[in-house]
Give the backbone structure.
Amino acid sequence: MHIFEGFLPSPWWQLWFVFSIPIILYGMYKLNKLVSAKREVVPLLAVAGAFIFVLSSLKLPSVTGSCSHPTGTGMAAVLFGPSITAVLGVIVLIYQALFLAHGGISTLGANVASMGIVGPVVAYAFYKAASKANMNFYLNIFLATAIADWVTYVTTSIQLSLAFPTGGALTVSGFLTSFYAFAMVFATTQVPLAIMEGALTALIMKYVVEVKSDVLVNLEVLSTEAVNKLKGALA
Amino acid sequence: MKLEYIVGIIAILFIFQFFYGVAIHPDAEYGGADGEAENVITAIDPTYEAWDPGLPTFEPQSGEIESLLFALQAAFGAIIIGYFFGYYRGKNQVNKQ
């Protein structure tokens, strides 16, 4: 999903910054509030950030003969909400842009929008809706994470097709033709990857429930009854 | 079924799809999907050239250095995750006693 430095022409890279910056600022505000109000969530916040760090460094080979990496943002989105996830995403993306020449500073706005914002927002919405519908917690985490991953790449495809519509001018058919081309590149790589990522995140969440379930209640991810039920299933 | 088993099966399937990929595309280079998207851009607009924002950038001098930086990224993340999980696990055990 990294759009490389210089690969988004004006006005697109500016527009994605305009889109992302207010959300990041709001996320920083929320993060500050959370950390000062609930001191005990800080370690879990570090774990969620580290999870994004680890997963986005794993370049996994896929069936089509190309490699890509998971995004790892699903867990942070479920635990802390999308705006805080956006802040964590920015940190990882800046590291990769500065030290690894992956992504770029000019495309940071667009990359944050796809990986840090749109994917997590959809994951968060899915998680909330599915837990209202009483879906199994781990299945819910699995699906929310996989969806976050896919949506991230769909967003990247949209960003690229807006900037590079087939035929040069931005028309509906030009956009769709380009979108199809970009989405095909990512879809085949990302489908198995997202499934793997979802499974891994569900497993990590199981350990969080096991060792630190009180924080999940505190963050309103799960109700006390739900935690007790899950812990009963573990015992 | 225990979640660990399910994840294990998914991991095995994931490894299997990699070998299946090697079998059907024996000459595949296994480059990044990001790079492939770049090729699509070139196909759509052959005249497009990446512009230089004029920022001082650091590019890893070789593939080895790049993989070192990626490995460091993964290691730091893994240390943080392992540290806190171990910490909580130990704390829970002490509290139980």
